[in-house]
Automatic annotation (TrEMBL):
Residues 848-968 form the CBM6 domain. This is Glycoside hydrolase family 3 C-terminal domain-containing protein. Keywords: Hydrolase, Signal. Transmembrane segments: none annotated. The keyword Signal applies. Residues 1-30 form the signal peptide. Pfam families: CBM_6, Fn3-like, Glyco_hydro_3, Glyco_hydro_3_C. Gene3D superfamilies: 2.60.120.380, Galactose-binding domain-like, Glycoside hydrolase family 3 C-terminal domain, Glycoside hydrolase, family 3, N-terminal domain, Immunoglobulins. CDD domains: beta-trefoil_FSCN_BglX-like, CBM6_xylanase-like. It comes from the Bacteria. PANTHER family: BETA-D-XYLOSIDASE 5-RELATED, SUGAR HYDROLASE-RELATED. It comes from Streptomyces yaanensis. One of its GO terms (molecular function) is hydrolase activity. Belongs to the glycosyl hydrolase 3 family.
Amino acid sequence: MKGNTGRRRTTLLVALALIAGLGATVPAQADDPAYPFRDPNLPVNQRVDDLLSRLTLDEKISLLHQYEPAIPRLGIQSFRTGTEALHGVAWLGKATVFPQAIGLASTWDPALIRQVGSAVGDEARGFQQQRPAGWGLNLWAPVANLLRDPRWGRNEEGYSEDPYLTGSISTAYGKGLTGGDPDHLKTAPTIKHFLANNNEYHRDTTSSELRPRVLKEYDEQAFKPAIEADAATGVMSSYNLVNGRPNTVNPAMDDTVRTWTSQDLLNVTDAAAPGNLVGSQKYYGTQTEADAAALKAGIDSFTENDANSGPTTTAIKSALSTGLLKESDVDEAARHVLSIRVRLGEFDPGGGKYGSIDASVIDSPAHRKLAREAATEAAVLLKNDGGALPLKKSGSAAVVGPLADTLYTDWYSGTLPYAVTPKDGIAAKLGTAVASSEGVDRIALKNTATGKYVTAGTGDSGAALKETADTGTASQFDAFDWGSGIVTLRSAANGKYVGYNWSNFVNNQTQPNGWFVQQQFKLERQDDGSYLLRYAGYETGESWWSNPVYLGPTGDDGTLGLVGKDKAAHYTKDVVRDGAAEAVAAVKGKDTAVVVIGSMPAINGREAHDRTDMGLAPSQEALVKAVRAANPKTVVIVENSYPTTLGALQKEVPALLWTTHAGQETGNALADVLYGDANPAGRLTQTWYRSESDLPSILDYDIIKSDRTYQYFKGQALYPFGYGLSYTSFRYGELKRTDGGYEVAVTNTGRLAGDEVVQLYTHQRVSRDKQPLKQLKAFARVSLKPGETKTVRLKVRPSDLAHWDVTHSKWVVETGTYDVMVGASSADIRARAAWQVKGETIPSRDLSKVTRAENFDDYSGIELVDESKVSGTAVAASADGAWLKFADTRLGSGASSLTARLAGASGTVEVRLGSPTGTLVGTAHFDGTSSPYTYETVTAPLTAAAKGHRDVYLVLSGGVRLSTFSLG
């Protein structure tokens, strides 16, 4: 009846409009207030219910793909999930580019980050009038994956190795994106990538093994704050598996994530991930099964097959017809989608609260100012011996290095509206031109057999490389060293980089870029002193790449193509211009030499490619040494996206400043810091290790057992978590307990105004379980004038001290003494207090009750695996002798039997006391099952020795899977 009334009302409105001469300006039904879903005065749920009731089953199914089609009969426009907005709106054209996410977090300034998020949300809205291809108001940001391993290729996208800091920054950014009102969304941010996604190596087939404590205390805690604060409107499932189950079908998206908020969430898959369930992961036999499982696990929108929704909707319909799904499953997912669309104001008059925002906000003066402020606050002063910084504006300077006069963008960057390079910023600060050099060798490659040179095109669009007799600039290339033997070749003839175009090598690229970064080469020195030119584009590492990778003439005209090593051309590498010598000449006699080194974001680790080398490129280290020898007043800026080992430079140069790739205002921000118009207060959000040897395998996710991150790392860091210097000094007073936490007086004891980042850590002295050495619980960035004192209040409650108790699968605060430490970094503690907390005591284990095997206290030789394809985690023995420890077990007067649920290969489960080789009190024999998901119950008697208060060990033979057990 409501529909008929609505149609009659719309007909009347159209007729009246025609009489008034307005005609087609009133679209039929598009703004009809008779439809409750268009009434902004009604509650969101009521509007969603109304709209859902008007949709056909096919229309509801159409909402479950990334590209949701228009529904003209209801005046509903198309909708798309997935506009990238990691540090600015990306892929839609010019927009404000803020520092990379790791840089935003390095500010330790949630208030500033909320402003940045608000600006990005405004700019996403700014495109809404034109709706360019790829635009939408469901933004894929922020990234909350923890940076537990600095080798992760996507380190630039995350915030910190610490869940509390990550949660604080992601919540601030998300609040800015949403506008702060969950019922009236500026944009709808999707937090990614859920869960435990911190390696790119085989990222779709590797399993991140998370024991319950790591899952609950670490990985989930990075995602929970933003969802809990309604600063994110859903999660994106990641490509990897967790405990053997692909995250695309991780039931935690429903069972856990949705419990963190009362708001509807829109959960999406990562791009092409549904297809992986059938493809690389081989988890399901058909796409119908896979998509049905994903929907039931908590996915609402499938990102698959680009704009072609056909395969997804076909699979969903098939699942309905075969009983794998019910229409109520579709309704539930569609409801989540529509809730977001209603809250975005799509069905409100004029587009709702934010419907009037237009393109004038994009790269506005206010946003340019904010970008400069964010880039300034993000910089971290690593070293400043003898007051080398700040510099005097009256002095002369030279700015050298491969990043001195360029800005690089990353895969998820927007298009720079303008670029202030370090050289530009320093020149503007000094009001005069500055000497500069990239410090890069210019080379020519001559074929030793023919005497001809590799020659590039001279026009702006370049040309295919060929061998000619030309000895001019067309045969010269600037060779940029990015480490691990990788170089890029920029043509001296037109300033463009050489790249492979699947046929030839052409000098036509402004900078290395693309999904397959095809501008990478290696110059391989041979025994005779000649070089082979190897093509090293990212795609050559793919399993499907079978072509040769060396360059040589392939045509009569000398055009270069790919050939086998036996046919590769041998070249002499003639240095036309010595880059280091040119840089040395530039810095001689100058009051300061500023060397800007670092990474190229498309090359030194990025999505799909982890870093294999944590050091600087060798030629960059050599450049710094040469400049330092020529000018002792050398300042080094390291511009990259991750911790770097830095080699000997950390000792050799007087001043080191780190910044991420910080966007359009990089140069101005660096100049502000270098010359003292801003006092650096950025702090590191990760541990900077001295060597790769400090780290276990990148696939080892158990930070507790492997002593990862500042929480557990016992070694000597190059720079600790939370570290950063200032041009001024700060004194801390006594740490005092307050009703809501602790307070400390902080005084600026220096001559310059500055910010201090006051950090509060806790440590539990005695516990049943292994505890972090330190754990961040609160922080505050405070501004102080010279001589000024402020009382900094830091909130921390007893409940914040809880850890996950595996004996009862719950959070627990243990009674005991907790150290409270406040300071300038995790390693620079200035004030301490002891906090006596009354909580509870974890009792001894009672293994007479059914115990999940995953709730062990220690282990060796085991894997965490999927108990079933739907839910649950089991333990699998990787080899004979694998063991699980269940500490502090109360066996009483005696346990008489072992009962265990087993699957997989045939084998045994031994019960031992005291150690994996201790007293054997029973052995269960298992014949095996045909499926790893088919469990059988086995029992075995225990000897009379199974009594008392003991550590119990279960020793498994290889291939056995154990889900639960009890000692009865």
